[in-house]
Amino acid sequence: MATTPPRWFTDTKPGHSEWYIERFRTMAREGADLGGEARMIDAMVPRGARVLDAGCGPGRIGSFLHVAGHTVVGVDVDPALIAAAQADHPGPRWLVGDLSELDLDAQGETDPFDAIVCAGNVMVFLAPGTEVQVLRRLSAHLAENGVLVVGFHTNRELSLEAFDAAVAETDLYVEHRFATWDLRAWHPDADFAVTVLRHSTDRA
């Protein structure tokens, strides 16, 4: 794990992981729509794509994509969230790992991914100063012409300007930006950003 622990551990209260797990279990039981992010990704890739759910939490996005017919690998730094994903959503491969040190080749996942989704404020909960390294490690797992989609609240620990500066230090570029996962137009007053990134070598 990275020397500096992620904010997911340092900036949350004891029991936060368990609360988070039960929150989404309750929402699922109540019939809440938990697949919005996954629907966007599903629309962007061919059938049977390989998808990495980076910072997968208890598995709601990866599960939707698995049911849609994609090959899904989910990674999260929190063992409690991975255990919940394994219990609630069998099918995808769920792995414990720090995104700043991501090396799925070493775990037998040698094929690159057609899409990587990084939702649920994952970027906000990273260890401070690891944003560039995380984006580089995700980029290293992205297939040629693949897409990396990142969504987070921009009024918290990570500003959009800081995120864009981090992107500029990678081999990625911003192809599109939206204010919501249902593709509402980006505007400067938005407090949430969904950014579509691709390899610079794939630029049209």
Which short descriptors sum up this protein?
204 residues; alpha/beta; seven-stranded mixed sheet; 7 helices
How many strands, what sense, and barrel or not for the largest sheet? 7 strands, mixed
* Structural class based on helices, strands and sheet pairing: alpha/beta
How many strands?
7
**Arrangement of strands in the largest sheet:** 3-2-1-4-5-7-6
Q: Could you estimate the helical fraction of the residues in percent? A: 25-40%
- What form results from the Cα inertia axes? globular
User: What does the radius of gyration come to?
Assistant: 16 Å
Q: Kindly, what is the distance between the CA atoms of the first and last residues, rounded to a whole number of angstroms?
A: 37 Å
Secondary structure tally, helices:
7
Strand content: 15-25%
Detail the poorly predicted runs. none
Q: Give the mean pLDDT.
A: 95
Layout of strands and helices, then pairs:
Layout: H1 7-10, H2 16-29, H3 36-44, E1 50-54, H4 60-67, E2 71-76, H5 79-88, E3 93-96, E4 113-118, H6 131-140, E5 142-153, H7 160-167, E6 172-178, E7 192-199
Parallel strand pairs: 1-2, 1-4, 2-3, 4-5
Antiparallel strand pairs: 5-7, 6-7
Helix pairs in contact: 3-4
Explain what you see.
The structure is a single chain. The protein has 204 residues and is an alpha/beta fold. The protein is built from seven helices and seven strands, in the order αααβαβαββαβαββ. It has a seven-stranded mixed beta sheet, sandwiched between helices. Helix 3 packs across helix 4. The radius of gyration is 16 Å and the shape is globular. The model has no long low-confidence stretch (mean pLDDT 95).
